[in-house]
Design brief:
Layout: H1 2-23, E1 26-32, H2 44-49, E2 57-58, E3 65-66, E4 75-81, H3 86-102, E5 108-114, H4 121-131, E6 136-139, H5 142-151, E7 164-167, E8 173-177, H6 183-194
């Protein structure tokens, strides 16, 4: 009986640890360089890490291609997500609320990147249409997912943590940390870059 109790206790401790990790906490934004407009001359590897800005993505709703470089000079809010992730759907609802709160400014672009390698464009399109989201949703190609994980943290490949980035007008990347963020919190994070 005590052996079964021991295994049950271990199981619940592991489950609690996973739950707390998935809930995450918000951390202050931190800036990461280099930028879109800088040339990265340190090494060939460093240069290739920034290639994700020029990787062609396909909007799941429209089928049109775009890159992050297409939005140079604008503020870009990037969220990694997955269809199966309920936290991601709640976070996307807050992104929608953010756009409404700000009056849908033309110089703020949101991009949600599906980082689950088992999900495809057709499934993502169905998800986006069902939930009524109106910004770019794209399945992240493997090289984009790798770049996000290598440059910022492997946690950017863990959608329930709601990891987000802001790319400012100069192409500098700012991490918003982990955990679901309200529209008000997102507004406070985004507004300084919109007024630059």
């Amino acid at each position: 009986m005590s052996k079964a109790f021991f295994y049950i206790t271990i199981f619940f401790l592991v489950l609690t640890g996973l739950f707390l990790t998935a809930c995450g906490t918000s951390a202050p934004a931190k800036t990461i360089k280099p930028t879109i407009n800088e040339s990265v001359a340190a090494t060939e590897t460093a240069a290739s890490e920034w290639d994700w800005f020029s990787v062609e993505l396909t909007d799941a709703q429209t089928g049109q291609s775009f890159t992050m470089n297409d939005y140079a000079g604008k503020v870009v809010l990037v969220e990694t997500m997955a269809i199966w992730c309920p936290t991601c759907a709640r976070q996307a609802s807050e992104v929608r609320n953010l756009h409404e709160l700000l009056g849908h400014p033309d110089d703020l672009v949101s991009v949600s990147l599906d980082v689950d390698p088992h999900e495809d464009q057709a499934s993502l399109k169905e998800y986006v249409e069902e939930l009524g989201f109106e910004w770019h949703f794209a399945v992240a190609p493997l090289e984009v997912a790798r770049a996000l994980g290598n440059l910022y943290s492997a946690q950017y490949l863990n959608p329930p943590l709601s990891p987000m980035l802001i790319i400012d007008r100069d192409g500098q990347v700012h991490q918003l940390g982990y955990g679901k963020k309200s529209a008000e919190t997102l507004k406070k994070s985004v507004e300084p870059y919109l007024t630059q």
